[in-house]
Amino acid sequence: MRLFDAEMNVRLEQRQRYFENPSYRKWSDIVPNYIYRNYEGLPDDDFFIQYLFGDSENNSYSPQDICDKLSEGYELPIDWNAFYDYFDERFNDPENGYKHQLTGGYYTAGCNDDVGIMELLDEYRDILLNQTYDMV
């Protein structure tokens, strides 16, 4: 398992590699840049929500809200290959000590929804990765 600073450096590199394509939604356009290490420091479960919804102000979405948004995937300015590559890389990294952010239950305000991020992603994997469109 990597030490915290090393993990933040890995996340920074990964998020820059996967989420700064100018043809799609960019993480740097969503995340407030006035908070130290917010770009890479945001936990992966919160990052998933904020990037998916394009909003850094509200994290209170139910699993149904998330499924509805994933169902609209073809309408979103998201590079789904990069999105899945990022989360697969994070999940399959043996040095990632923060995998619980991807597999633990997603909790929303007032709800105890025991659904993990990877479980939600796997449910939509075939649909979102087999699109016949290209966002330009």
Largest sheet: 2 strands, antiparallel
Radius of gyration: 14 Å
Low-confidence stretches: none
Class based on secondary structure composition and strand pairing = mainly alpha
Strand order of the largest sheet: 1-2
Query: Strand-and-helix sequence, N→C?
Result: HHHHHHEEH
Strand content: under 5%
Distance between the termini: 38 Å
Helix content: 40-55%
Shape: globular
Name the average pLDDT: 88
What does this structure look like?
There is one protein chain. This protein has 136 residues and is mainly α. The protein is 50% helix and 4% strand. The protein is built from seven helices and two strands, in the order ααααααββα. The chain has a two-stranded antiparallel ribbon with strand order 1-2. A hairpin with a 2-residue loop joins strand 1 and strand 2. Helix 5 runs antiparallel to helix 7. The chain is globular, with a radius of gyration of 14 Å. The N and C termini lie far apart (38 Å). The mean pLDDT is 88.
How would you sum up this structure in a few lines?
The chain is mainly alpha-helical.
Please give the structural blueprint:
Blueprint: H1 4-18, H2 38-41, H3 44-53, H4 63-71, H5 80-92, H6 100-103, E1 106-108, E2 111-113, H7 117-129
Antiparallel strand pairs: 1-2
Can you tag this structure with a few keywords?
136 residues; 50% helix; mainly alpha; 2 strands; single chain; 4% strand
